[in-house]
Design a protein that fits this description.
CATH architecture of the largest domain: Orthogonal Bundle
Number of domains: 2
Organism: Micractinium conductrix
Main location: nucleus
Keywords: Nucleus
Number of helices: 5
Distance between the termini: 86 Å
InterPro entries: CBFA_NFYB_domain (IPR003958), Histone-fold (IPR009072), Transcr_DNA_Rep_Reg (IPR050568)
Helix content: 40-55%
CATH superfamily of the largest domain: Histone, subunit A
Protein name: Histone-like transcription factor
Largest sheet: none
Length: 134
């Protein structure tokens, strides 16, 4: 068996043709079928949606990998890397509610303390407002 030339992994996305899909058409049709706003979908539209999803996922993964490498972690893409990619790149801002950056509980509690200038509970805000009115 002959070895592949260096850098040409047959299973890598770059070695696939422009019409090859990793996300199957059946999977896309199934997802779209579950959406009440979408009726039937043509084969061409299904292909376009699948390819667009792949391109989007690749862009998110690349930006996340860049974030991981900057943090000194190149072997493992973590949720925080993906969330940072979404937060830092404006074209992905539509995903900000879906992929929010995480906040440690201790940091959130510190921000909620009165006088911290951070987030306050509704009760604390009401108490602060009542104190200012007197």
């Amino acid at each position: 068996m002959e070895a592949s030339p260096a850098g040409s992994n047959p299973s890598s996305p770059n070695s696939r043709g422009p019409t090859a899909l990793l996300i199957t058409a059946g999977r896309v049709k199934g997802l779209l079928r579950d959406d009440a706003d979408v009726g039937s979908i043509s084969t061409e539209a299904c292909f376009a949606v699948a390819k667009a999803a792949e391109v989007l996922l690749e862009a998110i993964a690349r930006r996340g990998a860049t974030h991981a490498a900057a943090a000194g972690r190149s072997a493992l893409l973590e949720y925080s890397d993906v969330a940072a990619a979404v937060a830092e790149w404006e074209p992905l801002s539509f995903l900000a509610d879906t992929v929010p950056q995480t906040v440690k509980a201790a940091a959130l509690l510190d921000r909620m303390k009165p006088g911290s200038g951070g987030v306050q509970t509704a009760a604390a805000a009401a108490a602060a407002g009542a104190g200012a009115a007197s």
